[in-house]
Amino acid sequence: MHAFPKNTRRRRGNGRPARSPDLVPYVVPWDSEHVGGVSALTTEHHGGYSRLAYKAPRESDRDGAEVLWTRHTQSRGVGNPKFAAMHSERQFECMYALKCQVCAEPASRNKDGYLFLSWPEDQPHPENRSPGWPEGALTTQPPLCEAHARTAARLCPHAPHFVALRVGLPKLWGVLGTAYPRTVGGWVIDNTIPELRFGDPRLRHVLASHLVRQLRKVKIVELP
Q: What burial class does residue 40 get, using C-beta atoms within 10 Å of its C-beta: 0-12 exposed, 13-18 middle, 19+ buried?
């Protein structure tokens, strides 16, 4: 498997998730958890070019590819879950380490690969840009264990359209985020950028929120 750039540094979640009668996936944010605002951002010169940075930098702000990541507070289980979104740090944790997005335990893996859920090619979703879907599709959805595959499919707003996949090579590919180019008039927020591959120079002005894998050696299977 393609290795993520060395010296990866990202904050992790609060360890193994607490079990709850009303199971909420580990990657789901709660309304008590907040994303940092634009006021915390600045630009800095690094390696001969300018890039997005925090005014008060932390060692954990960037991953091994030097991409700047969203700061997301941690208070899992407090308030109400926001099922239509993902917590940026917990998404990173599960996607990077190939953990189940529901329980944060190791994802299911058999001779055909890791278990992922995706959307059929006829559904309007950013993951389906690959003409050979599902081969080569990009995803921000971490994998799953067999015990929680149906739970994830049921709880997600896209539930009716899920397809189960076994992925032999879920390659770390890039990030999804928001661009913050700075002009003489101040910050310009650009939400139109697609997923960006590691090494793309546009990443210098992107605040990442999701780690992206490319699905290779893919087989469509029945949902466990």
A: exposed
Domain membership flag for residue 138: yes
Q: Which structural domain range is residue 156 located in?
A: 38-221
Structural domain contains residue 29: no
Residue 117 is encoded by which pair of tokens?
């859920």
- Position 9 in a domain: no
- Cβ atoms within 10 Å, residue 81: 17
Q: Does residue 23 sit within a domain? A: no
**Total domains in the fold of the chain:** 1
Show the CA angle centred on residue 144, arms to residues 139 and 147, nearest 5°: 155
Across the chain, mean pLDDT equals 84
Using CA atoms, how far apart are residues 163 and 145, in angstroms rounded to an integer? Answer: 15
Best-predicted range by mean pLDDT (110-124, 179-193, 207-221): 207-221
Which among 10, 223, 206 has a CA at the least distance from the CA of 115? Answer: 223
Out of 68-72, 88-92, 181-185, 190-194, pick the least confident: 181-185
Q: Rounded to 5, what percent of the chain is helix, strand, coil?
A: 15, 30, 50
Q: Quote the CA–CA distance of 143 and 114 in Å, as a whole number.
A: 7
- Helix (H/G/I), strand (E/B), else coil: 55: coil
- Please give the helix or strand (H or E) that residue 167 lies within, else none: strand 163-179
Q: Which of 50, 61, 67 is nearest to 4 (CA)?
A: 67
